[in-house]
Amino acid sequence: xxxxxxxxxxxxxxxxxxxxxxxxxxxxxxxxxxxxxxxxxxxxxxxxxxxxxxxxxxxxxxxxxxxxxxxxxxxxxxxxxxxxxxxxxxxxxxxxxxxxxxxxxxxxxxxxxxxxxxxxxxxxxxxxxxxxxxxxxxxxxxxxxxxxxxxxxxxxxxxxxxxxxxxxxxxxxxxxxxxxxxxxxxxxxxxxxxxxxxxxxxxxxxxxxxxxxxxxxxxxxxxxxxxxxxxxxxxxxxxxxxxxxxxxxxxxxxxxxxxxxxxxxxxxxxxxxxxxxxxxxxxxxxxxxxxxxxxxxxxxxxxxxxxxxxxxxxxxxxxxxxxxxxxxxxxxxxxxxxxxxxxxxxxxxxxxxxxxxxxxxxxxxxxxxxxxxxxxxxxxxxxxxxxxxxxxxxxxxxxxxxxxxxxxxxxxxxxxxxxxxxxxxxxxxxxxxxxxxxxxxxxxxxxxxxxxxxxxxxxxxxxx
Length: 464
Hints:
Layout: E1 4-5, E2 17-20, E3 23-28, H1 30-41, H2 44-50, E4 58-60, E5 74-78, H3 92-111, E6 114-116, E7 124-127, E8 130-133, E9 139-141, H4 151-168, H5 173-178, H6 185-191, H7 194-197, H8 200-216, H9 221-228, H10 234-249, H11 272-289, E10 293-297, H12 303-310, E11 315-320, H13 323-336, E12 340-344, H14 364-367, E13 372-375, H15 379-383, H16 390-400, E14 403-408, H17 414-420, H18 432-440, E15 444-450, E16 457-462
Parallel strand pairs: 10-11, 10-13, 11-12, 13-14
Antiparallel strand pairs: 1-2, 2-3, 3-5, 4-5, 6-9, 7-8, 14-16, 15-16
Helix pairs in contact: 3-4, 3-10, 6-8, 11-12, 16-18
């Protein structure tokens, strides 16, 4: 196939991303050549890459892309990431880590006489739980006395979503997904109670910024042009970045109440022997299939993702709905340096194709194909919790990967009985027999095993 332009990179006048021959390329347009050469020749790009702050970038022959690189000054190749995630899928801990990475990169760049042209959170990606900056063309020569051009964008896409959870206890994910440019400062300012606004950090970064934006709407072009001439000494610029970094690094989620499943791994319906059997089953599956990319649906705090990695999976992307569990899973991945990234997912409403022409940000299924799947204690949350027909649940799960492990939870299980305690049982077709028939209609059952006293059963399927 000919080179395919990434539909999400059209906004950048400096260059464009292309996919070709399972490789990732970036063109450098003439308008960005001088800044790119400065960042390259000063050693900044190499230094940031060695430090893990910036994705590796290697100049290659422009002829690789043929006419697609016509007119470009340079062609750069980047390593291909196993999975691209978006900030509206990140946990609080992941978003905080990405924000700190962005500020650390800015501070390192400033030491070399460079700054960033923008502050888009979409320019950060994760390799496991380690963030890295991916847009080498955002680096440009620092202009003496300049203000931070990306400050407003940083607040909308990093700071404000974090404050929503830290100050109000509201997760950012759904709001952010519905507003791809982030959470507007003026909207957050209207939500904050008066006592929250008394903090100097909140006042200066939210309340004051909101007032300034409101005042700017009433100014003439000449007044705005005059304001743009203001100077900010480099040391003041640096101090602002340091102060913001230290504040963000210390933010924590507001804990108003326990999340639903945050302590599930410690207080579930399995005894230790049953849990060991479950781990062995997952380990056997992974050792036999050796998935390069495994999806763990309902990953909780990442116990079984870690088992999968220890058993031969190269990378694991976990998905869960519970914020507390996701935060713990991310901290597990960071602490143990696992090739594991836990992401927020409402499985009944996964991330869709959206943005300009519904192609700027790709939906979940469009971004990667998993080689393997584990869905443990998961299917009943869709079939019982969200009224999705059991056959559709099985069809969706088996369609995500050619091989996997799915746990079936009996209706008599304590967990399901709790789910049904306050509602009518309308699930006459929910049974192990129906589940097995649906699974056999789509794949071969390699192995099955009952792993709990309440009858929970694991099914290893293969549809190849």
